[in-house]
Amino acid sequence: MNTTIGQFNPVAIVFFLLFIALSLGITYWAANRTKNAAQFYTAGGQITALQNGLALSGDFMSAASFLGIAGLVALNGFDGLIYSIGFLVGWPILMFLVAEPLRNLGTYTFADVVAFRMKQKPVRIASAFGTLAVVSFYLIAQMVGAGNLIKLLFGLDYEIAVLIVGLVIIAYVIFGGMMATTWVQIIKAGLLLFGTVLLAILVLSKFSFNPLNLFAAAANKYGSAVLAPGKQVANPLDAISLGLSLMFGTAGLPHILMRFYTVPDAKTARKSVMYASWFIGSFYLLTFVLGFGAMTLLSRVDIQKIDKGGNMAAPILAEALGGNVLLGFIAAVSFATILAVVAGLTLSGAASLSHDLWVNVVKDGKADEGEQLQVARYATVALAVFSILLGIVFKGQNVAYMVGLAFAIAASGNFPSLVLSIFWRGLTTKGAVASIVVGTITSLLLIYLSPTIQVDMLNHASAIFPLKNPGLVTIPLSFLVAIVVSLLEKDKISAQKFAEVQQKIHLGNQHY
Fold first, then answer.
1. What radius of gyration do the chain's Cα atoms show?
2. What are 348-364's pLDDT values in tens digits?
3. Alpha helix positions (H), 223-265
4. Which domain holds residue 170?
5. Nearest to 99 by CA among 260, 296, 234
C-alpha cells in the first residue's frame, strides 16, 4: 500500500497552522476577560449547558479515543468496543450522582467538595496528590502521543513536536484560562465530530450505507471471530476490572470534574452532561465503524507496518478514502485533540497546585485575588514544562497503559472519597485521606506489578499481580479503607456539617 504517512505533509501543516491561529486568537480575546481567579479557573461560571457539553466532550475525547479505539477495532474486531462502552458508561454516573452536588458544593476543584465538612489541610494535600498523579500519567500519554503523531504525519522531529505542544498550552492557559480552554475544546469537539462523521459516511458509502454489509465483509475477510468477544480481553476478571476502572474513573478525572464549575447552576451542570453524553456516545459508535472500515478496506498488515498498535488506522483510512487533503485534515484534527485535552489537564493540575495547596494549605485561605491568579499562572508554566520533560523522557514507550492507569488512579483514589463525602454521614477526615492515599498508591503499585509492565514492557516471564488493570482490587479497597478508618475515628464536626451538605446539594448557595 502506498502512503505518504511519515513524510512531510504541507496540507496537514496548513490545517494545523489554521487551528493554532484560530485558537491563539480566542486566547487573546479570552485574556481580556480573565481578570480574577474565578474567571481563570471557571470562566466566571458563565458557560451555557450546550457550550459546556461540547467542551466536556472535547475534554474527554482524546487522541487515545479517536486513534486508539479505531486501531483496537481494526486489529481485534468486536472486542475493541469494550473501551468505547467503558468510556461512555461513566457519564450516567456523572449525570445522576456527581454533577449537581459537585456544582452546589464546590468552587474550583473536586477537593472543595471532599474538604467541605472536613479538616481542610490534610484533605486538600491528599486530594492534590491524587489529582497530580492522574494528571501526570494522562499528560505522559498525550505528550508522547503528540510527538509520535507529528513525527509520522508532519515530518517534524519528535522533540520539536512535544515542545510545540507545551508552548502552545502555556499560551492557551496562562493568558486565557478556562475561557480560552473552553472555546478551544468546543472548536476541537466540533472538528473531531465532523471529521469522524465524514469518515464514517465515506466508509459506509462503500457498503450501500448498511453497517451489516460492513460487518459481513469483515467476517468474510477475517472469519466470524472478528464479530465475537474474547480476543482483546480473554480473562473475564480482566474485563470486569477494566470496565470498573473506565466507568468509575470517568467520575474521578479532575479535568472533567472541574468543568462543572464553569456553569451558573446545578441544573445547567446536569444538562451539560446530557449533551456531552449524546456527543460522546455518537462519537464512540462512529469509531466502531471506522475500525471495521479500516480492517476491511485496508489490511491489518499495512496498518501495523505504520504503527504496531494500530494507532494510525484512522489516518491511513482517511488517506485511502479522501487522499492527501482528508489525511491532512484528520492529522490536524488529531493534533488539535491532543492540544485541547492537554490544556484541560494542565488547568486542572494548576488549580490543584494553586487553589488547594498554595491558597488553602500554605496561606490558610487568605490569599487575595491577584496573588491567586499569579500563583495559578506560575503553576501552569511549571506543569507545562513538566509535561514537555515527561514527553521527551518517555519517548518511544508504549503509552496505551498510561490512559488506563490514569482512569484506575482516578477510580481508586478520587471517586470513593468524592462519593462518600457527599452521601455518607460517617465519613471522617482521616477516612477521606486514607481512602485517597491508599487508593492512589495501591493502584500505582499493582499496575507496576501487573503483566502490562512486567511482561509487556520489562519482558519478564510472568507478573506478580495477574490482572492488567487493578480496578477490581483497588476500588473496593479504597471504599473499605475509608469506611473502616472512619468507623475507628469520632468526628462530630464532620457529622454535624453533613446536614449542611445535604441542603446545599439540593439548594446550592440559596439561603435556607
1. 22
2. 888 888 888 888 888 88
3. 236-250, 254-257
4. 10-395
5. 260
